[in-house]
Amino acid sequence: MAVRLGWQAVINVAFGVGCFLLAWAVFQRFCEREIEGPGAATRAVASVMVNSMGVRLRGPRVPRPWRDALAWKDFYFLWGGRVGFIIRTLAYGGALAFDGWGVATQGTAFATYSFGVQSFPLMSLAFSIDLSVMAARVFRTELRDQTFSTLAMLPCGVRDIVHRKVWGCFLAAAPGAFCSLGIQILFLAFVPDSTLSGTNMSTHTIWGIQVATSWLGRVFVIVLIAWLSLYMKRGALPAGWFLSFVASTLVSIIAMLILTATSFAFMRGSPVLIVYGLPAITAIVGLFVSWILYVQGVQRLQSLAGEE
């Protein structure tokens, strides 16, 4: 008796296998620090036993440093180097290739219709989590290891150090950014276009505004998490997500009240001002707060470098 597997089963199995391989790949990197305390002896004995069995623990050879040594250091020793880059490319590129295959065979991107409930939000969520982890670790790791004061002795300012470390994060996150943008382009290209009731605005315009707003929202979230990591030893990532959700909700409510009170857009049956004004106000406030957190974060790093 032949058993036919639906798309749901295939997707669930593929996602489970992908999560297993990803956890396997990053386990050693997140657990590479020595354990202090009573467990240290046990770990040392286990290490001796593994070495006595002839197992090679040496990882892949790290290439020579780039001209920008700080970006090279973070890229290889924080974000997985070439192995991490390949894993991200395969994981994010798989979703993009799946949607591209849907366009080639079905004429529509799966992220637009049946697969969109899972693939498009899941891809966006995975990329946001990846960026959030980078933001939480990029400076906290240096502060935890008390190495930032050494970096501050380099012949460049703290602001330049921040920019170089952020550049290393950008290189590691490039596959996710490229593939996320590719899926969004497929979505905008193949979503059915129509005109919003009571206006001459197309749904493509509305979706394009939402896509642009989502990228600006990511900028605010990662800046907030990086800023919180300068004050919190643990928990900067969940705290940043929670605070960004609360802040975006409050700003949206206040902006909606202001726009409704000043233009009565809903009463006139013309939501054009709401469609344009609400994302614009949210983006302006988010960018302004992000700039303030960036300036204050650089000052915080300067003071922490002096304390170490």
UniProtKB/TrEMBL annotation:
Alphabetized, the UniProt keywords read:
Membrane, Transmembrane, Transmembrane helix
Q: Does the keyword Nucleus apply?
A: no
State which residue ranges cross the membrane.
6-27, 76-98, 118-139, 169-191, 211-230, 242-267, 273-294
Q: What is this protein called?
A: Uncharacterized protein
Give the organism, scientific name: Chthoniobacter flavus Ellin428
